[in-house]
Amino acid sequence: MFSGKARLIRALYYTVLPEDQDYSPVRPLIDWLGYNGFTVVTKPARDFADSSGRRKPRASMEVDMAVDMMELGDTLDHVVLFSGDGDFRRLVEALQRRGLRVSVVSTLRGNAPMVADELRRQADQFIDLADLAPAVARETQRRDTNGDSGPA
Q1: For all residues of the chain together, what is the average pLDDT?
Q2: Where are the beta strands (DSSP E) in the chain?
């Protein structure tokens, strides 16, 4: 959808994969994205012990995303970030200081907004993911979004 409005340089998808599992439910998505031109960046989730000694998985892609965006920034004029994480506000600000436009895609709809207010306000443009549904959702989801429950 975005490549129809601009020259797409690179589409990156970041995800964490469980380190000790042979199969992950996200694997079909990762394979599809790879076959369809996305650069897929993965990182293994590692276990850590919390203060009570319980083991919990932990991994974060934020630094990887920020480094890649800053490195690519010299060759871009517009970045589209699909995230609502307020930790990206400073990254968006830094990219804007370098002359880039930054659009943030997330959602305000639903029981709890999935975008931090400070990130939404910092972006040059905020796009609600729900507004993209008619263009990107599967046909059955498009009918549901438009209030049509489909065939009776």
Answers
A1: 85
A2: 12-18, 39-49, 55-58, 78-82, 101-106, 125-128
